[in-house]
Amino acid sequence: MVQMSVSTWQQPLPAVGSAVRSALVAEVAERVLACGDGRLRVGIDGLTAAGKTSFGHELAQQISARGRPVLRATLDDFKRPWRDRHRYDRESGEGYYRNAYDYEAVARLLLRPVAPEGSGACVLCSIDPLTQRDHREVVNQAAADAVLIVDGVFAFRPEINDYWNYRIWLDVDEQTSVHRGTYRDQTWAGAEAEAIHRERYLVAMRLYLTEVSPLRLVDVIIDNTVFDRPQIMPAGRDG
Question: What sections of the chain are H helices per DSSP?
Answer without folding.
Answer: 19-33, 52-65, 93-99, 103-105, 174-189, 193-196, 202-212
